[in-house]
Design brief:
By secondary structure, the protein is an alpha/beta fold. The chain contains seven helices and seven strands.
Length: 179
């Protein structure tokens, strides 16, 4: 446990994870005057390995190491994106709080869905997003891409990822990260 009057929050180091953790830290400070909150940044298997989620194990690749930081005492609590949580909590851990949700809608970067040409190449690392979009537009072609918003934009700008359009972020992430 951290020092009296302090709390250590484990989180990933992505800009979105850090932003979410600062929102939680701010709410905790507002609820308890004088509380010192330390952010403990943890690298996860999902951060280290840019392979597709199916190749590296899918569920848990962004939470296992963060939860281990709580279990082994490096942190007192963890902040996760709900989408990264597994359906079964690790032994000894609980889902203690859920802050207000940001806009949950997905955002298509590059064009409106109705304006995409037939056969447009869409980059996304999300099986859910791929399935939803394919059900609306079976003509679309998909390529796998992973990483935070900045990495995905860089891949597109460098030509390393050849997609013409990107379905890779939530509308809330676009707002939070000022894109």
């Amino acid at each position: 446990m951290g020092a009296p009057g302090s709390l250590r929050l484990a989180t990933r180091g992505s800009p979105l994870a850090l932003h979410q953790t600062e929102l939680v830290a701010g709410a905790l400070r507002a609820a308890r005057a004088g509380l010192a909150v330390e952010v403990v940044v943890v690298r996860t298997r999902g951060d280290e390995d840019a392979s597709s989620l199916d190749q590296i194990g899918g569920q848990g690749v962004f939470v296992t190491e963060v939860e281990a930081a709580v279990a082994d005492g490096r942190a007192d609590a963890a902040v996760h994106s709900a989408k990264d949580l597994t359906s079964v909590m690790a032994a000894g851990l609980v889902l203690a709080a859920v802050p207000p949700r940001a806009d949950p809608r997905d955002g298509l970067v590059g064009a409106a869905l109705a304006d995409l040409p037939a056969g447009a190449l869409i980059a996304t690392g999300s099986a859910r997003r791929r399935a939803q979009l394919a059900s609306l537009r079976p003509d679309l072609v998909f390529t796998d891409v992973r990483g935070n918003m900045a990495r995905r934009v860089a891949l597109g700008e460098s030509g390393e990822a050849s997609a013409s359009h990107w379905l890779n972020v939530t509308a809330g992430e676009l707002v939070v990260l000022a894109w």
